[in-house]
Amino acid sequence: MDIRIAAYAVITDETGRMLLPRLTAEFDHRWALPGGGIDPGEDPANAAVREVFEESGYHVEIDELLGIDNLVVPGEKRLKKSKRAGIPLQNLRIVYRAHITGGQLTAEAEGSTDDVAWFTQPEIDSLKRVELIDTARRLAGLIR
C-alpha cells in the first residue's frame, strides 16, 4: 500500500464564502480544498501555506488544526495513468483553518489545478467536488 500525506486549508472570507481551487481535467475538473502533498521533511502547516499560494495566489497564515482525515483508495480506483495504478493508496489529510494575509487571487499555471474561486455554502452544495470539502466544512463547523 502507498501512503500520501497532505495538508489543506479551510479559508473563508467575511461573508462566509469559501476559497476552492478546481482540479484539472485529469481529476475530472472537481473542486477541492486548497492544499496538497507534503514534501519530504516539510512541516505540514508550511506545506498548507505553500500549496494555498501555489493554487490561489494568496499568502495565508494558519490559525488552527481542524483535524486529520484518512481515506483509503482501493488499487482499482486509482488513476489509470498513475504508475502505481492497481496499488491501494492511503491518503492522510491534515486540515487547518487559515486566513489571508496578502496576495491576489490567481489561478495556478501548469499545476494540478486550473481555476480558483470563492463560493457560498449553498453554491458549494451544487458543485462537482471532492468529498474532502464536506469533511473539512464539518470540521470547521460550516455544515453539520
TrEMBL record:
List cofactor names only.
Answer: Mg(2+)
Q: Does the keyword Transferase apply?
A: no
The chain positions of domain Nudix hydrolase read: 2-144
Give the matching InterPro entries.
Nudix_hydrolase, NUDIX_hydrolase-like_dom_sf, NUDIX_hydrolase_CS, NUDIX_hydrolase_dom
> What terms describe the molecular function in GO for this protein?
hydrolase activity
Alphabetical keyword list: Hydrolase
The answer, when asked if Ribosomal protein is one of the entry's keywords, is no
What SUPFAM superfamilies does the entry give?
Nudix
Name the domain of life this protein comes from: Bacteria
Q: Where are the transmembrane segments?
A: none
Q: Which family does it belong to?
A: Belongs to the Nudix hydrolase family.
Q: What is this protein called?
A: NUDIX domain-containing protein
Q: Which organism is it from?
A: Nesterenkonia alkaliphila
Q: What is the lineage of its organism?
A: Bacteria, Bacillati, Actinomycetota, Actinomycetes, Micrococcales
